[in-house]
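Tokens as discussed.
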């Protein structure tokens, strides 16, 4: 499957052969897990759990099947505006690469076009492909900003991510405290007025 291909504005599914292989591996892992925690992996409610677990992981981690360039889609160069373009508080879900537990929240993404721009749906797809990978929040935030800079060569880009982490809330400190990360590039990093305008515009 080509990493460049995408259709109907959705990320491609992971190939069926990969899913089958993952189901086999998941079954072995799940049986060992159940034995060690005192559960019976052969009881009715758990018989198809390895299959469901494998399929769920494939659905949540299918962001590797498309490149950032393909996710952004068509790039337009006519009548380019020179003002800030913002995608505000886009919901996302991702998987922590340390504990394989979800983290989720919102992404606010903006850039100032230079010679090219994309449709807003392209920004949403770009965020989705990076969110649908094994991630940490800091890396997710930076990858989106860096891809916009690389593919569109804008005057600047900024990404602000606010997220809750189940690896923090379900284990460890058991705290429900959102984490905020940001990535500033170009004008957004160099010009405090540009940053302030963005922050004002994404306020609730």
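Sequence:
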């Amino acid at each position: 499957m080509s990493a460049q291909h995408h259709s109907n504005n959705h990320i491609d599914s992971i190939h069926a052969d990969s899913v089958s292989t993952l189901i086999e591996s998941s079954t072995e892992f799940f049986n060992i897990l159940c034995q060690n925690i005192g559960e019976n992996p052969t009881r009715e409610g758990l018989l198809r759990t390895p299959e469901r677990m494998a399929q769920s992981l494939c659905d949540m981690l299918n962001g590797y099947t498309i490149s950032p360039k393909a996710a952004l889609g068509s790039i337009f160069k006519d009548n380019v505006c020179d003002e800030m373009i913002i995608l505000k508080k886009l919901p996302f879900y991702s998987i922590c690469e340390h504990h394989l537990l979800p983290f989720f929240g919102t992404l606010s993404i903006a850039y100032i076009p230079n010679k090219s721009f994309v449709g807003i749906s392209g920004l949403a797809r770009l965020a989705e492909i990076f969110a649908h990978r094994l991630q940490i929040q800091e890396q997710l935030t930076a990858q989106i900003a860096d891809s916009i800079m690389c593919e569109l060569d804008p005057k600047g880009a900024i990404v602000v991510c606010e997220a809750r982490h189940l690896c923090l809330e379900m284990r460890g400190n058991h705290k429900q405290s959102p984490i905020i990360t940001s990535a500033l590039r170009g004008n957004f990093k160099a010009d405090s007025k540009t940053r302030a305008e963005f922050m004002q515009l994404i306020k609730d």
